[in-house]
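Bug: token stream looks shifted between consecutive jobs. Job 1:
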Amino acid sequence: MISSKAIRPHLLIDDFSTFYMGRIAIFKNSAHVLDMEESIRDRFERTPLTSGGKPVTHYRFADSKAEPGIQLSDIVVGVLGKMHTYFTETAAEEIAADRAGLAGTSLQNAELLRDLISASHVANIAFLNHVSSLHDLDKLDLFLRFYDGAHAA
């Protein structure tokens, strides 16, 4: 039986270290530079990563101010986060109307994002990681209009 102390009401995700650890495990031949977040670093220290009994060392924490890659990643994640918030909070009919109203640079940007997601999917399906409902992923598909009619995940 699970103790009632172990379950915290209204808490969906306690921390995001699982997402970091998952990426490191999946992409074991890559070097990972992670934004210095003390709670994530502390979790890594409490639960050291190993593979085949050996310590995993292909990651490091860095100050984002000194890492242009982290700065760029923060911008991209911020834009994608705003987009997913929009899908969560907006009815599909309104999303379809908004998409139909895109023109010029806005339309080009939506198409570029769609093409980038599709190319990432083709290169390696593990590049894409969504924590969204199927309903919201349908809205993503509706907005970005993937060629195959299905979200690239």
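Job 2, same session, no restart:
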Amino acid sequence: MKRQLFYALAAMAAFLPVSCASTSKAGADSTSPFEKVGLNGSEVPYTVLAKTNDGVEIQNGGYGSDACAHPTDSSLFYLVTDRGPNIDFKGNSGKGKMFPVSSYAPRIGLFKINKDGSVSLVNELTLKSPDGKEITGLPNPNGKGATGEIAYDLDGNILGTDEYGLDSEGIVAMKDGTFWISDEYGPHIVHYDADGKQIERISPFGINTGKRHLPAVLARRRANRGMEGLAITPDEKTLVGIMQSTLFNPSKKEISNKQLVRHYTLAAGYLVLQKPSLRLEMT
């Protein structure tokens, strides 16, 4: 995974509180550490997961999916990874993705902006299934969010699937310490507790936990173009998710307007409401 650089973090500070619950002031000092970040950004720390036979580093530092503010401390923020290191690969069973570290668990990182504008990792939380086992970023099985991708290991062997696997994209941090994460496999919206264990998974398929479902039409998403963005209203009562691309509805060949995406709200409680589609301005 590529090292993640935070370009223009000062500008980013303006949107972080919108992605999550409201933040409080971190103290009497009105000077924001974001102001110390240069035009080249601040580098997010990383570790090396493994190396290939020819010496290429496989890095644990791809916190590039989404960012959101800590709900109570404005000096802290969260980043979420995607499904982990992967590259396009064509094996004996056809085109797919190679996962060089197939056991990689998608994770949430808590980061701090230091007074000098540098970034430090405070804590890292791996995502887990309802029974507390770490999930992976491997594709979901058929009927549970499959994209049709074939997963291979470094030797070209076919890997299995993971019914709790996630290609995480959007993140919301709640004041109670829990997290909501959207993904682009199912798509799924998953609620995790403060330890990263799944509380509820909401999808177009109605699987795993809970009785709430996303609209069935979202299962017609283009592969890996699921719920790219997720935010919450300031009162923490309504999640707002947006799809990355036009749905293949009723089919890829039959869609007539490729400039439409859909956004949805999930009311805290029991109901999923469809909102009007958004028009993408093509420039």
